[in-house]
Design brief:
This protein is 31% helix and 22% strand. The protein is α+β, with helices and mostly antiparallel strands and 416 residues long. The longest helix is centred in the middle third of the chain and has 14 residues, at 258-271.
Length: 416
């Protein structure tokens, strides 16, 4: 069983180890008009606004794989099951979670490899493979959860072809525990790649790097990752070919059966020869580099605020340049330029909130303040402020699931 979470003074910790106990805990809170902070292993407690609650509903004891059918590409696990345990079980059958959940624990000063399946689904976390495989919500087949009404709901199914309840699965995925406490999750799994290769284009910057990523992604070579690291970020990589490049690095990943990977990598080398010097990473170094990109570890320095910004890929270089000029931001681009990680100086009182929102206003997009101190998180919107119509719709959905607002109140912003 995982170690209990530290509990602040005057806070009651509830650690149910059965689904019925979760129902009872929520029902008790509902009867007492008490609010609950829902956590798994607490690895993403710093994501979103702080929850002011006297009771913590710790789901870490609600763990274990309850169903795994490799032939059907389906796995069900309780919400508190660690991703590392799930990935180990899948690896024994040469399978994997295709949405490549990143490890954000170290972003918040926590341990690596401690995040849970429930946390990844509640936050809809996806890694660099999202450009090809989709987000976490695209791989959730079924859910069991307890709403703020104290009711157990079941949605979706346990087979890949079952579409019953898909919309409700997608609604709960990414809701950050504000609609229901997830208790069990069924996900689609896929065969793990036999081979992985990463082609590195050295020295391309700005428009040239974007053009290299666009060229690769629009080719028939099935690129599963496309990211750009400026020289300062590349120099921090644990992969010597990257850190020793002495220049910016544009990384392009291909994976699959060995003959196919080798052929596609060779074709990409020919296609991208005009963009700069090329290097190639094999399996282990590729895994290390893409884990660094997904976890933003190349930008983690001290307690500096960190933004995760989604924009149209063609706008990525311009938005990054604006933030670098106005805020002194360091930038890493993923998803072919559609995802920007921006680290800004800690001295900025609002973590650059006004400048970030202004920079994405024209091209469109959204920005999440993934990491900042408590004072900043309390003073600025952490998530992209929704349009008025969307905000009203969100409130009506919340009314349906949690009318008394007892589950993670304020986690995603001010409550109506």
């Amino acid at each position: 069983m995982p170690a209990p979470l530290p509990v602040p003074p005057m806070t009651a910790a509830l650690r149910p180890d059965t689904e019925d106990a979760v129902v009872a805990a929520v029902a008790d809170a509902l009867a007492d008009d008490a609010v609950l902070e829902i956590v798994g292993r607490g690895t993403k407690r710093g994501l979103g606004h702080a929850v002011r609650a006297r009771r913590v509903l710790d789901l870490s004891a609600l763990s274990g794989i309850v169903l795994y059918e490799p032939e059907e590409l389906v796995l069900s696990a309780r919400a508190g099951t660690t991703l590392s345990d799930i990935q180990a079980a899948l690896a024994e059958r040469n399978q994997a979670l295709a949405f490549e959940p990143p490890d954000w624990g170290p972003l918040y000063g926590g341990p690596a490899r401690a995040g849970t399946l429930g946390g990844a689904v509640a936050a809809n976390l996806s890694g660099p493979a999202r450009i090809r495989s989709g987000a976490a919500r695209d791989h959730v087949l079924g859910l069991r959860a307890v709403t703020g009404r104290g009711e157990l709901v079941k949605t979706g199914g346990r087979v890949v072809k079952n579409v019953t309840g898909y919309d409700l699965c997608k609604l709960l995925t990414g809701s950050m525990g504000t609609l229901a406490a997830l208790t069990e999750i069924t996900v689609k799994v896929l065969p793990a790649p036999e081979k992985i290769r990463t082609l590195l284009v050295l020295g391309a910057d700005g428009a040239m790097a974007l053009a290299a990523m666009e060229t690769a992604l629009q080719s028939p070579h099935d690129v599963s990752g496309a990211a750009h690291l400026p020289a300062y970020a590349a120099a921090r990589s644990a992969v010597s070919y990257v850190s020793g490049a002495g220049a910016s690095v544009t990384a392009l990943r291909v994976e699959g059966p060995a003959p196919s990977v080798e052929a596609r990598c060779l074709a990409l080398k020919t296609l991208l020869a005009g963009f700069g010097p090329l290097e190639e990473l094999h399996f282990r170094n590729s895994r290390t580099l893409w884990a660094e990109i997904g976890s933003a570890s190349l930008l983690v320095r001290g307690g500096d605020p960190l933004w995760r910004i989604s924009v149209p890929p063609t706008a990525g270089p311009r938005v990054g340049a604006v933030l670098a000029r106005t805020l002194g931001a360091e930038i890493v681009a993923d998803w072919g330029g559609g995802l920007l990680w921006a680290r800004v100086p800690a001295a900025l009182e609002d973590a650059g909130h006004a400048s970030v929102r202004a920079a994405i206003a024209r091209p469109g997009g959204h920005a999440t303040l993934v990491r900042a101190n408590d004072a900043v998180r309390a003073s600025v919107p952490v998530f992209q402020p929704p349009a008025p119509g969307i905000a009203r719709l969100n409130a009506r959905i919340r009314d349906g699931f949690d009318p008394k607002r007892i589950l993670n109140p304020g986690r995603m912003g001010a409550e109506p």
